[in-house]
Amino acid sequence: MSGRILVAGIGNVFLGDDGFGVEAVGALSAHRLPGHVEVVDFGVRGVHLAYQLLDGYDTLVLVDATARGGEPGTLYLIDVGEAGPAAPGGAVLDGHHMSPDAVLALLGTLCAGTGSTPPRRTLVVGCEPARVEEGIGLSSPVAAAVPEAVRMLLDLLAADPAAPADAEEPTRRELRRTP
């Protein structure tokens, strides 16, 4: 990966394993990261994520609970492909139900209106949830997957042969929560 990278934690910490993305980016923020990488806990604020992407990122890495039928705690690396966001006009603006798909559709609409360019590449680091009903805290298999997800993210970020020379400058990146 080259260029600016946004690693976005997605999920609702009040719905059990849906908080996986938030927990994983929180753990990732304790590591040394290249200077061109930004890690943000967006939680359920998908609209904020869409607007953040207008700042211009080459790569977006979404970290989220991802139900694909595997065993709880199974990690997935999904390359959304180069199709990019959905066509303009495809998003319904609902601040309480902004799934990653809806965020990418909204981004298509926003980019068309502003002349901005969406991320060239979108990846998802997902974890199979065990439960997503009301309740705070991850299930045991999903909590156990958080350190492995952090390793997966660090490997993805380290695989960038075109990283800027100042990539090792910060000793710690702060996790930023959007307002």
Please give a structural write-up.
The model is unreliable at 82-99 and 161-179 (pLDDT under 50). This protein has 179 residues and is of the alpha/beta class. The longest helix has 19 residues, at 140-158. It has helices at 20-28, 46-53, 100-114, 140-158; strands at 5-10, 37-43, 59-65, 75-79, 121-127, 176-177. It has a six-stranded mixed β-sheet, with helices on both faces. Strand 1, helix 1 and strand 2 (37-43) form a beta-alpha-beta unit. The protein contains four helices and six strands; from the N terminus they run E-H-E-H-E-E-H-E-H-E. The protein is globular, with a radius of gyration of 15 Å.
Helix-strand layout with pairing:
Elements lengths: L4 E6 L9 H9 L8 E7 L2 H8 L5 E7 L9 E5 L20 H15 L6 E7 L12 H19 L17 E2 L2
Parallel strand pairs: 1-2, 1-3, 2-6, 3-5
Antiparallel strand pairs: 4-5
Helix pairs in contact: 1-4, 2-3
E-strand count: 6
- The helicity comes to 25-40%
Q: In percent terms, what proportion of residues is strand? A: 15-25%
Mean pLDDT, nearest integer? 76
Q: Give me the number of helical elements.
A: 4
Q: How would you write the strand order of the largest sheet?
A: 4-5-3-1-2-6
Structural class computed from helices and strand pairing? alpha/beta
C-alpha-based Rg, rounded: 15 Å
Could you tell me how far the N terminus lies from the C terminus, measured between alpha carbons in angstroms?
A: 28 Å
**Unreliable segments of 5+ consecutive residues:** 82-99, 161-179
